[in-house]
Amino acid sequence: MSASTTPRRPAEPSVHQQALLVWAAVLPTLSVLQFVLGGLLRGLPSYAQPPIMATLTVPIVVYVLVPRLRRLSSRLRKG
């Protein structure tokens, strides 16, 4: 295969763009989880609440939201 027929990979977003995408995924996820689970978590010790929220938030952000936001960002950059 020559260089001209090799499929091009899309440009990776900069570190700053990645940080913005992660923030855009984490903030609403934490807000929704806090709204939905806030009452249930209030009965737990304060040291137990952050690990529970992180355990729920990280997979949602990493496996669902960030990939979707990256695809959307890529489409918007292509115009």
TrEMBL record:
<keyword id="KW-1133">Transmembrane helix</keyword>
<protein>
    <submittedName>
        <fullName>Uncharacterized protein</fullName>
    </submittedName>
</protein>
<keyword id="KW-0812">Transmembrane</keyword>
<feature type="transmembrane region" description="Helical">
    <location>
        <begin position="20"/>
        <end position="41"/>
    </location>
</feature>
<keyword id="KW-0472">Membrane</keyword>
<feature type="transmembrane region" description="Helical">
    <location>
        <begin position="47"/>
        <end position="66"/>
    </location>
</feature>
